[in-house]
Amino acid sequence: MATAVLPAPAGIGRAEQFSTRVAFFIAGFGGAVWAGLVPFAKTRAGLEAGGLGLLLLAFGIGSIVAMPLAGALAGKYGCRRVLIAASLLVCIALPALATASSPMLLAAALFVLGAGVGSVDCVVNIQAVIVERAAGRALMSGFHGLFSVGGIVGAAGCAGILSLGASPVAVSLAAIAFTAAMLAWAAPHFLAFGGDTSGPAFALPRGVVLFIGILCFIVFLTEGAILDWSAVFLTFTRGADPAHAGFGYAAFATTMTIGRLSGDAIVRRVSRTTIILAGALLAASGLLVATLVPSAVAAMIGFALVGAGCSNIVPVLYSAIGKQTLMPESVAVPAVTTLGYAGILLGPASIGFIAHVASLPAAFLIIAVLLIGVAVSGRFLKA
């Protein structure tokens, strides 16, 4: 049965928009701090690459398990309570990740961190849908841009503190203090409700929601591919110096952040279907440049094009969730977010399998074809 799009409740304004941006920032920040602590955890636990890979799965599993529950709790108790609780989970997990030497303890702490970050990411998207609808104008790209900014600040801050000779414990405590300060600033303006609660607490995505989820899966798969494989591609396929291989992901992340922070202004001028069409084609062309032009510089330019192209597709898709009437957002958003995270989890492993059977450039070309499918499919969504 279809559910009506609820009118935006009164009293949602700039303060709620600000709190939404802060929550996106916290989600990006928490994951990035852990990324900076990974080498230390690997050394403490004496893990080889394979063992580390298995350990890192705990983060994704924690996220995927927590998201549907977080959406249901937000629908029942409101976004504010769940966002506060999930942010506190992030704070609880970081010290354990900075000190634990047992792989099992690290996996448990990483599961908790994934549950916290995933819950914040899920519930803040529910809040973002409601806040954007209340504003009556495009805000989603800017909201998601703060996730990217949080990632940059978390990674740079972690690296900066470590470069001063601080310990991982000091980094985790500084991250907790910063997160707590941001949370105290924004929490009073988190929404006390969680959208339409007329539907079931849990439901499998269907219809247009499933369609949106599949498109998100492909875009998140693309992001995961660049995150995990761009440096490998530059080093072993294009012969780049390993010390410079990280510039591929840096180029991708930079253009994605710029694209999201400027995306709302673009969305207000052109239709959302145009954003999906042009963005997916641009991202596909970036992968084609990276794989077909035999140059490390060309590959970095290609990865930058992928970041620019992908930057506003997912925000536009989340806005589309707010327009559909098949499922309430408290159910639809967790379903779509879970599918997206599944793309991040399964994508890199699938690419590794294709690279083993064929080649890494062949895997990137397959993703380019999938992105062309996203471009074609975008016209079926409401503008």
From TrEMBL:
Upper classification of the organism: Bacteria, Pseudomonadati, Pseudomonadota, Alphaproteobacteria, Hyphomicrobiales
Keyword line: Membrane, Transmembrane, Transmembrane helix
Membrane protein topology class: Multi-pass membrane protein
GO MF entry, a single one: transmembrane transporter activity
Ranges for domain Major facilitator superfamily (MFS) profile: 16-383
Primary subcellular site in the record, as a coarse category: membrane
One annotated Gene Ontology cellular component of this protein: membrane
Subcellular location: Membrane
InterPro entries per UniProt: MFS, MFS_dom, MFS_trans_sf, MFS_Transporter
TM helices/strands, residue ranges: 22-41, 53-75, 82-100, 106-131, 143-164, 170-191, 203-226, 246-263, 275-293, 299-319, 331-354, 360-381
A Pfam family recorded for this sequence: MFS_1
Coiled-coil region list: none
Name of this chain's protein: MFS transporter
